[in-house]
Specification:
There is one protein chain. This protein is an alpha+beta fold. Among the domains are: 185 residues, Galactose-binding domain-like (Jelly Rolls), CATH 2.60.120.260; 25 residues, no CATH class. A hairpin with a 5-residue loop joins β9 and β10. The longest helix has 35 residues.
Length: 356
């Protein structure tokens, strides 16, 4: 029955985009949240009832009580009927309090007994509270084949936020609708009109472009697009779809054709996974590099000192102001004396010359 409903939705949405995988026609297995609703009509299932009205007055939102129960951690989750290739989410927050959803995170999970919060690989999105408020209608890219989705929010000790209106102490579920947009697990593209390539692992692919982002069905495939027709000569390996020379592996054995690593070790004093680093050369460099660095530093320091001293010694002499004509005439017949100092063989001689 569910597959018939999916095919019907596929036909209807092929032109306009991905399929909403949670809808009133029972694509969800169960929906729940981590606290009681503030009012009975604001239960968890209201976030996937197909009603995108963002006002609490219409009883179309899932809302927990933030005023009576100050929760520092809260969650809402949905488990779909089976795994789907989920492209993105459309999250409709309660319009008058969407700022209180700042800092939320989205995780994926696959069974009712999963604990996604314990596995950081399951985190697909985190809203940074330092970047301000979320949008009242927020799109979140998932691009992952999964069965369950978890919305969670926390207010840990020391929590800070740059979103005006955010509650720094407590958090709550205030979700009016979550649209889970995607395709059946082996299809992709808007409208879900295309099948994932069989060369992709489990025939799971990128929801948007169909690439084998989850791996290849053939474990010997050597490239990211799972092609198998690239062959390299002995002693070479594939890197970025081209053949690259191996390092110096032990006993002349070729490196791993997929990774380029020397799985059995390196020749002589070579080190590293790819056997291209010389141990002796590295040891010499460790000895000489500090010496060369010190020499360069001292040379620079001496150069700076010499430069500064030259700048001081080259300070221009200031010329005396020109004397008036009368002063020059008065001094014409007045002798004056200039002391000259001569130094020769360490003896100092002084003479007195009269200048007329």
């Amino acid at each position: 029955m569910s597959m018939k409903i999916f095919v019907l939705l596929l036909v209807v949405t092929e032109v306009c985009g991905f399929v909403n995988l949670v809808n009133p026609q029972s694509f969800k297995r169960w929906v729940t949240m981590g606290a009681k609703p503030q009012y009975p009509n604001w239960e968890a299932i209201k976030a996937v009832d197909g009603n995108t009205n963002q006002s609490y007055e219409f009883d179309s939102c899932a809302i927990t009580d933030i005023d009576v129960n100050c929760n520092t951690s809260i969650w809402w989750m949905v488990l779909l009927e089976s795994k789907f290739n989920i492209a993105y989410l459309e999250i409709y927050f309660r319009s008058d309090t969407f700022s209180r959803s700042t800092g939320f995170s989205i995780y994926t999970y696959d069974t009712e007994n999963s604990y996604p919060l314990r596995d950081p690989k399951r985190l697909v999105y985190h809203h940074n509270p330092l970047f301000g408020c979320p949008a009242p209608i927020q799109n979140v890219t998932i691009n992952y084949v999964t069965q369950g989705l978890l919305f969670t929010n926390e207010r840990p000790q020391g929590y800070t936020s740059n979103c005006p209106g955010d509650n720094l102490m407590c958090t709550a579920v205030e979700l009016c609708e979550i649209k889970v947009m995607g395709c059946e697990q082996s299809r992709f593209s808007p409208g879900c009109s295309r099948s994932c390539p069989s060369k992709c692992k489990n025939q799971h692919c990128d929801a948007f472009n169909g690439s084998c982002k989850h791996g290849c069905s053939n474990p010997n495939a050597l490239t990211v697009d799972c092609t198998e027709n690239i062959e390299c000569e002995y002693g070479m390996y594939i890197q970025n779809k081209t053949c690259v020379q191996c390092g110096h592996c032990k006993d002349g054995v070729a490196c791993n054709k997929s990774t380029g690593r020397c799985d059995n070790g390196c020749e002589n004093n070579l080190t590293g996974n790819f056997c291209i680093n010389n141990e002796e050369m590295a040891s010499d460099l460790k000895f000489y590099v500090p010496i060369v660095s010190l020499a360069v530093f001292l040379a620079i320091a001496v150069g700076v000192v010499i430069y500064q001293r030259r700048q001081i010694s080259v300070t221009p002499l200031q010329s005396a102001p020109a004397e008036s004509t009368n002063q020059q005439k008065q001094k014409t017949n007045t002798p004056h004396y200039i002391n000259l100092v001569f130094t020769e063989e360490g003896h100092e001689y002084r003479s007195l010359n009269i200048v007329e």
